[in-house]
Amino acid sequence: MAREVETIGVLTSGGDAPGMNAAIRGVVREAISKGKKVKGIRRGYVGLLAEEIEDMEASSVSNIIERGGTILETARCPEFETEEGQQKGADVCKKHGIDGVVVIGGDGSFRGAQKLADHGINTIGVTGTIDLDISCTDYPIGFHTAVNTAMQAIDKIRDSASAHERCSIIEVMGREAGYIALWCGIANGAEQILIPEKYDYDEQEIVDDIIASLKRGKKHYIIIVAEGVGHSTSMARRFEAATGMVTRATILGHMQRGGSPTCKDRVYATMMGAMAADLLCEGKSNRLVAYKDGAFVDFDIDEALAMEKNISDYQFMVGQRMSIV
Ligand code: ADP
Ligand code: F6P
């Protein structure tokens, strides 16, 4: 039976993403506007277990919508993956009068939320991660800002690669998913896009293409590599030795997770955070807020985590066909 909550806890967990602050603000202000109490839980499940919990007012989230990172901080918490940790987390919630929790994070964090729901605490997840790999949603908070940050950095590297007539290998985030690499590859007009889902590790084919492009008079050669493929620095050495084209590797790294969120991330985060608070107010639990087919919707967490998502073959092929000059 639906059980309406009175006090909502909110935490951010896993890798941070631009827009997490806007989502926290959405949760806090929507809940308060409906007469609920809100408590901020610091440092994800680590802070929950350590009882790092504080009251939040509407003013606690003033001047944060434009800020990257997360005011509640985030962490990874191996202890919460154990039955004892999960029971302790639920007990801490009860001790602090928290009967519903909004978890802003990625799929690992939602597995934690699922466990908290199993232990009697209503939970709602909000998708906050720079990787576009959460199956149930067409859009996770943070992706838009992250790809724009990476795209702008790659534009700058491309200027330098052109000036020096070099090959540039640029590694972007995405340990298991190539979405950031694919989007940057298309947006930056890369000659190669190497992603874990599609790359066949045939370096000779790339070497031949670099040599052919040099013969055609190309002044630069841009290769975008997803973190999941990796080895950019050694790849640069091998390509330079095999082609004679000076090759440099740049790993963009965690700069992609920071920065002021774009308008899209701020608006989607606000909507998703508010909707999470609304779902808790309606007595819902074990649900994930997502954006699907043009609408904000919610899914059962178990069903959402079982969904599959694949890189579009067509999008990848178009990305490759754009580099025929
Ligand atoms: P993300 O949420 O960005 O995918 P992680 O996969 O690192 O990040 O997960 C964040 C945290 O969520 C973990 O450190 C852990 O505390 C919790 N978590 C992950 N998987 C589980 C699980 N199977 N059961 C309970 N908690 C989990
Ligand atoms: O936030 C997602 C992500 O950037 C992945 O693409 C990457 O594999 C991971 O986080 C790295 O996280 P960390 O460096 O915090 O362990």
Structural account:
The chain has eleven helices and eleven strands. The protein has 325 residues and is α/β, with parallel strands linked by helices. The strands form two sheets. The protein has a seven-stranded mixed beta sheet with strand order 3-2-1-4-5-10-11, with helices on both faces. The longest helix has 22 residues. The protein starts with 6 loop residues before the first strand and ends with a helix.
Chart the SSEs and their pairings.
Blueprint: E1 7-12, H1 20-33, E2 37-41, H2 44-49, E3 53-56, H3 83-95, E4 100-105, H4 107-118, E5 122-127, H5 143-164, E6 167-172, H6 179-187, E7 192-194, H7 203-215, E8 221-226, H8 232-243, E9 247-251, H9 263-281, E10 287-292, E11 295-300, H10 301-306, H11 313-321
Parallel strand pairs: 1-2, 1-4, 4-5, 5-10, 6-8, 6-9, 7-8
Antiparallel strand pairs: 2-3, 10-11
Helix pairs in contact: 1-9, 5-6
The structure holds adenosine-5'-diphosphate and 6-O-phosphono-beta-D-fructofuranose (F6P).
Globular, elongated, flat, extended or rod-shaped: what is the shape? elongated
Uncertain spans: none
Structural class: alpha/beta
Give the averaged pLDDT, no decimals.
Answer: 95
Give a quick account of the main beta sheet: strands, pairing sense, barrel closure: 7 strands, mixed
* DSSP helical segment count: 11
Radius of gyration: 22 Å
Order of helical and strand elements: EHEHEHEHEHEHEHEHEHEEHH
**Spatial arrangement of strands, main beta sheet:** 3-2-1-4-5-10-11
Helicity level, as a percent range?
40-55%
β-strand amount: 15-25%
Instruction: Give the names of the bound compounds.
Output: adenosine-5'-diphosphate, 6-O-phosphono-beta-D-fructofuranose
Q: Span from first to last CA?
A: 62 Å
Tally the beta strands: 11
